[in-house]
Each structure stands twice: as C-alpha cells, then as structure tokens.
Amino acid sequence: MFILVWGAIAAQAHEISATVGDITVSDENVLVELRLALETFIAGIDQTQVADTDDADGAADYDALRLLTPEDLKTKFDQYWPVMSEKIVVSDGSNLPLTLVSVDVPNNPITDMPRLSTIAFEAQSAGPVTVTWPADFGTLILRQQGVDNPYTDYLWDGATSEPISVDGVPLPTFWETLIEYIPVGFDHIIPKGLDHILFVLGLFFLAARLGPLLWQVTAFTLAHTVTLALGALGLVNIPGHIVEPLIAASIVFVAVENIMTDRLSRWRPAVIFAFGLLHGLGFASVLGDFGLPEGQFISALIGFNIGVEVGQLTVIAVAFLAVGLWFRDKPWYRRVISIPASIAIAIIGIWWCIERVFL
User: Fold this and answer.
1) Contact between 94 and 10 (Cβ < 8 Å)
2) Is 248:153 a contact under the CB 8 Å cutoff?
3) Nearest to 223, CA basis, from 183, 250, 249, 205
4) Which residue from 95, 100, 98 is spatially nearest to 38, judged by alpha carbons?
5) What does the pLDDT look like over 147-170, one tens digit per residue?
6) The model's pTM
7) E strands, the chain, where?
8) What's the CA dihedral at 321, 326, 332, 337 to 10 degrees?
C-alpha cells in the first residue's frame, strides 16, 4: 500500500496516455490518423511496462525530445518512421506497405503534460483490413470514420482488430456492446486512473470497515454516473482545465479531512456526492475519446460504468487485504498508517492542483 501511495508522488503529469486512431476505409485505400505523444515512441519506451515516462528506461531521451521545437521533432520522427511502420501491421490478407502522409506537431509550451501530435499514413487496399497494434505501443483507441455503423475497438497487448470493411460493421447487440465497454472503464481506473485511485484510497483510510465504505462508494458512484451520462450525451461540457484541478482538489479535501478527524462527518455523503459529479466529468472525457455507438449508447454507458466500479472495488479490496484486514483494529492504526498515507495523498493532490492550474 505504501509503495503505491509514495510511488505516486513522482507520477506528476508525465502519464502515458492511450493513442487515439481514426481509420477510413474506402474502395481505393486505407487512411489512418493517430493522435499520440511522438516523444514516447521515438524514445523507445515500452508503454505496457510503465504508466509514467519518469519510470521508463528512456526517460532522459523522452525529456530531451520534449524540449525540441516542432520542426526538430518532425525531423526525428521522419528518421523513426521506418521502424514504426514495420511494427504497425495493416493487412488485407497480406501486410500492406504504409506511406506516411503528414505529421503535425503542435507548438505547445514546455510543460510536464504530454505534447500530442497527429500523424497520418495510408495503404493501398479496398478492404476489409485488420490493424495489429504492437504490444509495446500501449493502448490504441481505434475508431472508423465515414460510415453509419463504424467499427470501434480498444487494442492493447499486441491485439489485432476485427476486419474493418468499407461499409462498417453490423450493429452490435446490447450485451455485446456492454461486455466490450467493461474493460474500457476498468482500464481507466487500473492502471490509468491514478487520481481516481487516490480518491478511493482517501475514502478507505478514514473508514476501513465495509459498511461505511460501501455507502461512501455508493454516493460516489451515483454522482459520477449522473455526470458521466450527461457528459457523454454532450449535455454538460466543462473544459478539462477546470475539471482536472477540481478533481485534484477533491483528493486534497478528503485526505486533509482524514488527518483532521477520525470519524465520518454528517456532511461527508454530500461532499462525496459533489466530488463524484466532478469525477464523472473526467470519465466522460474518456468516453469522448473512445466514442459511443449511437445505437447502443445505454449499453456502452452501463458497460463502462461497470468497469469503473469493478476497478474501484479492486482498489478497495487490495487496500483492505494489504492493511485493513490486519491492522484496522490496532490502537496505532490511525497514527502509523492512516494519517501518514493521507498526508502522502494530500501532498500529491496539492501538487496536481498547482500543476494543473499554473503549469
């Protein structure tokens, strides 16, 4: 538990994010557009082994690449492209040669946040085609464009997509969509949702018993389900530069309250519900990247939410088995475990607040 909490202090904002890919299959060719942090790939970072570039073997190379101008980074990527194009496999029965079409590197200020560039490449084929995403490239959110029933998938660990045809795919059933979106939600908690993990741990360290934990998690769940649905429907749209600092502030609040008191306050349910509304907006941004099938919006939303809940319950279960089961009844539990862990969580949250507002 302490390894998880203290290791998170160094995480800051160098988190490795999923690559978002848009694929268009026509009668003549296949066009793929990727939004990704080029520096992570050029530095040779295995994106399945770490969640943060600071922890990778190529951390120094990544940091050096992040300092390059857009023009210099483009030059570096042109040199790297032959390696990348050999690893990404687009196939219509045989592997298709990939031609780089464009590279767009934004001129962002130098910050700890990843610089997301856009590249496009194409192959000559009338489809259907499959896409195999290399295991060390992390996760690819693949979305088909230009059809009524687009193919959408979440590729990781060297996975290969289903065949993607010119006409798209048959509309999946309710249960197929629900099952497909469960791992999407789970993955956003473990391993990618460090801020959500710390918030749930903040709930745990004040109440390591099942009853209080369940009603707190229930309030949190109900709240983020509301804003997740509203955000995914586009009815509520608050910019990330507002939502993300507030999520960090929610972590600080819960952790400080743990330090100041040893019992649940009367206003705790209302506070947790309010913070759940914020976290739901964060979840909605993930669904915005992945996309929701128009004909199966409800089932996709339910599946994603189930995945999120399973992830949260997994965090609680690990925390309970690591410290709660053995030490919660010890007279020194709060002094030796709960307060130090909450201090660590508060420090991380404060740094994220500063970073997300000013950096």
Assistant:
1) no
2) no
3) 250
4) 100
5) 888 888 889 889 999 999 998 877
6) 0.61
7) 19-25, 29-36, 89-91, 99-104, 117-124, 130-132, 140-144, 152-155
8) -20
